[in-house]
């Protein structure tokens, strides 16, 4: 199961449902895009350390950006940006889930619902 950036944010804010869904997952994955977004939002080195420790403690596996993921993300941008406003980061996260044949957990279903081959698990905080 791949977790979108928003689930990490909910968990860091103390949302019990977000923490439970992470704890219950047999295996935990995040795309490199999500990891970049989490680190990018940190305001100082202490927050960087907190994010890294969180990812390590919960034993998340960071999935790399591969050529196939990049290609699929490009296709999603070409197909959906003009009609639905799909952004590059979300296309990479979705492509990572699809290319790895995994479900994506997100509370931002509007960002992903247009991608037919994506198995989306809608999180309700």
Count of discrete alpha- or pi-helical segments spanning 4 or more residues: 7
Classify the secondary structure makeup into a structural class. alpha/beta
* N→C terminal distance: 18 Å
How many structural units, i.e. domains?
1
How much of the polypeptide forms β-strand, as a percent range? 5-15%
Main sheet characteristics: 3 strands, parallel
At the third CATH level, what is the topology name? Rossmann fold
Binned, the helix content reads 55-70%
Q: Give start-end ranges of low-pLDDT stretches.
A: none
Number of strands: 5
Radius of gyration from CA coordinates = 14 Å
Following the backbone from N to C, one meets helices and strands in this order, namely EHHEHHEHHEHE
For the record, the CATH class is: Alpha Beta
CATH architecture tag: 3-Layer(aba) Sandwich
Descriptors:
125 residues, alpha/beta, Rossmann fold, three-stranded parallel β-sheet, two-stranded parallel sheet, 7 helices, globular
Briefly say what this structure is.
With 125 residues, the protein is α/β, with parallel strands linked by helices. It has seven helices and five strands, in the order βααβααβααβαβ.
């Amino acid at each position: 199961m791949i977790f979108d950036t928003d689930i990490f944010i909910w968990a860091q804010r103390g949302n019990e449902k977000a923490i439970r869904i992470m704890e219950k997952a047999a295996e935990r994955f995040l795309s490199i895009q999500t990891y970049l977004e989490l680190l990018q939002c940190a305001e100082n080195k202490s927050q960087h350390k907190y994010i890294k420790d969180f990812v390590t403690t919960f034993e998340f596996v960071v999935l790399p950006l591969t050529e196939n993921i990049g290609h699929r993300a490009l296709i999603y941008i070409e197909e959906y940006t003009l009609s639905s406003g799909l952004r590059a980061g979300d296309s990479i996260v979705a492509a990572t889930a699809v290319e790895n044949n995994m479900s994506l957990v997100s509370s931002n279903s509007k960002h992903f619902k247009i991608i037919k081959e994506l198995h989306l698990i809608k999180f309700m905080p």
